[in-house]
Amino acid sequence: MGTPLQGASHLPFHNSLQPPQPPLLVAWEPPPPAFFKLNFDGSVRNLSVAGGIIIRDSSSTFIQATSLNFGASSVLLVEASALHQGIQIAHQLGIQNLIIEGDNLLVIKALQNLCSIPWKIATIIQDSKFMLQHFSSVQVRHIFREANRATDWITNVGHLVSSPFVLPTCSQSLLSSILVSDALGVPLERRAA
């Protein structure tokens, strides 16, 4: 009968003196007064690629949400296209002060001029930047996907439609519960990337 440590030399070293890291909690936050927040997202499922946007005001009120089906494409192209569509909608609604949030770091950095723009999305990003000149104030932020749950839900609807679908004001109970959780600032634990 062998000892419990027999063959233990191949096990990774574990430092039990270092406490485990507390979980990172993230939550959607409403924009400040006089601002609106545009969240965008993209999703790939089987051969379907979909995007979605949601616009909310400083009291977390749902203003508009749209699901988009892009057929077969790349998630990068869809995320950039959803962003572009969201900016167009915000402009059509007469919004002047806009905060843009998305969980695709490359698209966010491209919009912020913090990286070279991939050729696949260069025209979309350049046109998005041009449209943003029509707003009085614009902020662009990266968020974790856990803080982008409402847009993720809306994006998944895009897999079920063939043309842009404007969601009726908060008619779905699951979306309603996500929006209420967001408005209350209910945090979620950040999952590993």
Strand content range: 15-25%
- Largest sheet data: 6 strands, mixed
Mean pLDDT: 87
Q: How do the helices and strands follow one another from N- to C-terminus? A: EEEEHEHHEHEHE
CATH superfamily: Ribonuclease H-like superfamily/Ribonuclease H
Corresponding CATH architecture: 2-Layer Sandwich
- The secondary-structure class comes to alpha/beta
Uncertain segments: 1-9
* Rg: 20 Å
Which bin fits the share of residues in helices?
A: 25-40%
Mind telling me the CATH class? Alpha Beta
Characterize the overall form: globular
Give an overview of the whole structure.
By secondary structure, this protein is of the alpha/beta class. The protein has a single domain (25-189), classed as Ribonuclease H-like superfamily/Ribonuclease H (Nucleotidyltransferase, domain 5, 2-Layer Sandwich). 30% of the residues lie in helices and 24% in strands. The protein contains 5 helices and 8 strands. The protein has helices at residues 75-92, 105-111, 122-132, 149-157, 173-184, and strands at residues 25-26, 36-45, 48-57, 62-69, 97-102, 137-142, 165-166, 188-189. The strands form 2 sheets. Strands 6-5-2-3-4-7 form a 6-stranded mixed sheet, with helices on both faces. Strands 1-8 form a two-stranded antiparallel sheet. Residues 1-9 have low confidence and may be disordered.
